[in-house]
Every structure is written in C-alpha cells, then in structure tokens.
Amino acid sequence: MFVGTGSDVGKSVLAAAFCRILRQDGYRPAPFKAQNMSLNSYATPEGLEIGRAQAVQAEAAGVPCHTDMNPILLKPQSDHTSQVVLNGRPAGVQSAGSYFRREGRAALRQACHEAFDRLARRYNPIVMEGAGSISELNLRDVDLVNMPMARYAGARVVLVADIDRGGVFASVYGSIMLLPPDERALIKGIIINKFRGDLSLFDEGRRILEDICHVPVLGVVPYFSDIHIEEEDSMSLAQKQHSRPSGQGKVSVAVVLLRHLSNFTDFDTMERDPRVHLYYASTPADLAEADIVILPGTKSTIDDLLMLRRSGMAEAVVSARRRGATVLGICGGYQMMGREVCDPDHVEGDQPRLPGLGLLPVSTTIGGSKLTRQVSGVCQGQRLSGYEIHMGTTTALQPAEPLLHLDDGSDDGCRADDRCMGTYLHGILDNAAFVDILLSPYAHRLRQDEVFDYASYKQQQYDLLAQHVRRYVDVDAVYRMLE
Question: DSSP assignment of 300-316, as one string?
C-alpha cells in the first residue's frame, strides 16, 4: 500500500508503476483505493462509476476496471458538499460534516472491506493506495482509506513523500511518529519522490531518515516530465499548459477553464498530439486566436454557464464561432451550447432556467438518475467509443443531425456543421478518428504523415514509468516485503 505525507505526492503514479511492474513480472495485480475524492471519474464496463486514477491503474495492470477497485467516490459539488458514489452508484449528496460523522461509518467501512475481499479473491497482489496524509489526527477515528484499511488488509505500507515541496524530513518523521504504535509497525518502507538534481546529494539524507525513522528508504525517484500518465488530482490541473498559441504552425485548441471542470483527462490525448497546441483559457482574450474552442465537462452546468456569462467568456465563445473557429462541447459543455438549460427540480441550485449559448438547437433538463455507461457507435463513417457520466436529458428543438449513431440504436449529441458540435461522450478525443474529423478543416496546415496512436502511446508510457521506477526503487526489497 502506498500512503502519503500529503496530497499530490505521487501515490497514484507509483501505484500505477507497480501495477505495471507486477504485470511485467508475471503476476495478476489489481489496484484498490477505498475512498477517492475527484471530479475525474470513469465508467466501468458494467456502466458504474469509479475514480479515474483506479481506471488508469487497472489499465497499467492490464485488467478491466471494476467498482471493487474504488468502492467510495466523493465528487465535490461545492466547497462544503459532495456527491457520494457507493459501489459505482450515486448514494446522495452530503456535507463534509455529515459525511465524516461517526454515525453510519461502520456501514461504509464494511462496504470497503467487502470490496477489497472480493477483489483479493480475483487478483494477486493488490496494489493499494491511501488518500492525502496518513497523520490527520482529527479524522483518525473515521478514516476509511489509510492505515485502518491497511491494517484490515494486512498490507505492507510504503510512505511516499514529495521532496520538491520542501520539509521532507519533518513530513516523513512526523507522519510516522504521529501514528499509534500498531500502525507505525505497518510502515515497511519510504520512497522520496520528485527529486531534482544530483541524487548523490541525498545519500546522507537517506541515512538520516533511516536512523531517525527506523524504516528503510526504498528509493529516491527523480522528478520526470517526459513520461505522461493521466492524473486526476485537481492540483495537477494547475500545472498544465495555459499559454496562448505560439504561431508555430499547429492547430490551436483552447479548453475553457470552468470553475467546476470535471474529467480534464479528456484532453490528455490532444495535449500529446504533435499537430496540436492545447491550452486552457480563462479570459475572453485567450480565445481570440483559437482555431478550436472546447467547452469541457462540469459538475455544475448552470453555475458554470452563469460564470461564463458574467466573465464575458460566453460572448467570446459565440464570437469565436462567428469568426469561423470550431466549437466542441463535451457533456456539460454540450448542454451549455444549447438554447437553454432547465433545472425545474433545483438539482443544481435555485436557478430554474438559464439561456444557453444558442449554438445548437437543443434544450437540456437537469435531473433524473445519473447515466453511467460505456458506449460505442459511428460518426461520419468512423467507429468511436467513449463513456457517459451525466444527469439530465438533452432534446432537439427542431430536426437536427446527431453527432453519433450508437450501437444500441440511440443517437448521441448534435452537429450543426463540421465546426460546431456537442456530445455526451467523455473519452471521445481518445479516438484518433474523431480527432482527425475535428482537425479536418485545418488539414491544409498539417503534415499528412503525422499520425498519433494514443492507445499504443499510453502502453508505451506505462512501460517507461515501470522502467523509471525500477531504476530508482529497490523492487527486490518490495518483493521481499511481500513474502
């Protein structure tokens, strides 16, 4: 089990690395995180919802993702409330105070234990991940995901620390020493992550940590920027490219930076595409030179649509369309592109109706049960696949061309022309055929021999990650821990 001295120290990526390493070495591993908090989620083959990180780790392990890998998913709806997804299905909205109270905690803990037990019967070994810091003293009695879960599973625990943010000695020593003795005994190793510079300069630091913590340092992993693994933490979004087009002959793609942006991993493929310069737009001026504007998914369509109007971004998107730019909406972004978004049951708040951007002849009504499923279909003669995670229904207000014809006989999305379209499909940009359709109006500016196969690229990145970790972590020591 990989636990951390804090959030965004690299637990998820290291767990993915060991899922790959174990698979390479002939085992059948699977990831597990009892409780995850993220707006980046994924639909399993059964049409249920889990955190995106566990789907990525399952892909690294070469196994299908399943809700047992992430039985509890918290999807923030505001600064104080989250939707609780239990075993892949919505189980209500709760405030932080309500969710973390002791009443009802036993049932959630049992759900986590049962999911782990089912997973452990099918896979070996299980690569577990904690959440945030292991030493949040005020939450110890209600913790479901860190040391109590490790204790239940009998896990060998590795503490991960991010040296790049500073204070690594205090954070490692303090995290271990604040644990009660029985939990402290479960810590079998330390990994120092995101090191920059000459590794030999930390040789003494390694010895000091081992002396004061009485736990071996299994490795010091250098910071890398040339291996690309999908990340789900909102902190990683802040590190993404925000610069405007550089005029280097690429197609410029602007993703509108929404306050409640969800599933930003939808854009990982295009970020790596050599034909594209993708950046995140937060002001109207950021859209002035964009060839393609993408309105992404959101956890709160109406609130983000209201913010777009107040900030001038809504008019900037419409202006970009008028001057000939392509506009694509995904999920909540698709809903915003219609003529109106209605919320008669006040699912998202007090606003019962808000005019949309008027770019597509559709109307959306928020409400009903959440739809989560994996789908495939045909778009302009090309087979595509993706997944849906949304509440609400979108209907055409006049005869309109759907974007996709799905295999179950239904249709998805709406297409005004080859420069204006919307879809509910997350992951649609992972389809090379759809990216080609999106870039086709700009084909005259692109080299015809440029091809980007994202599926193969991702598998290559998992192998590179495993190679990187093998080089700097004592993998043999990890295996000895598991004997």
Answer: -HHHHHHHHHHHTHHHH
The set of residues, in sequence order, having a beta carbon less than 8 Å from that of 74 and lying 6+ positions away, is: 35, 36, 37, 38, 82, 83, 84, 85, 99
| pLDDT of 483 | 85
What is the residue-wise DSSP string for 84-146?
EEETTEEEEEEEHHHHTSSTTHHHHHHHHHHHHHHHHHH-BSEEEEEEEETT-GGGGGG--SS
Predicted pLDDT at 78 = 72
Residue 249: CB atoms within 10 A of its CB come to 10
Question: Tell me: the pLDDT tens digits for 449-463?
Answer: 566 777 888 999 999
Specify the pLDDT at position 379. 95
| Number of DSSP helices (H) and strands (E) in the chain, helices first | 16, 26
Catalytic residue from among 66, 260, 277, 426: 426
Q: Is 213 a catalytic residue?
A: no
**How far is residue 266's CA from residue 296's CA, in Å, rounded to a whole number?**
8
Pairing of strands 126-133, 30-32: parallel
Torsion of CA 229, 232, 235, 239, to 10 degrees: 40
CA atoms of 473 and 326, how far apart (whole Å): 46
In terms of Cα–Cα distance, which of 141, 92, 151 is closest to 116? 151
Q: Tell me, what's the pLDDT at 107?
A: 92
| Other CB atoms within 10 A of residue 257 CB | 18
User: What does the radius of gyration of the chain's CA atoms come to, in whole angstroms?
Assistant: 23
331 is catalytic: yes
**Out of 19, 112, 213, 331, which one is annotated catalytic?**
331
Q: Is residue 176 within 8 Å of 159, Cβ to Cβ? A: yes
The DSSP bridge partners found for residue 133 are 4, 5
Residue given tokens 């974007």 in the structure block = 403
**Cα–Cα dist 188/79, whole Å:** 36
Cis peptide preceding 125, ω within 30 of 0: yes
Residue 233 confidence (pLDDT): 52
Spans of the chain, pLDDT less than 50:
234-235
pLDDT of residue 95: 81
The structure's pTM equals: 0.82
Running DSSP on this structure, what letter comes out for residue 401? B
Spatial distance between the Cα atoms of 191 and 142, rounded to a whole number of angstroms: 26
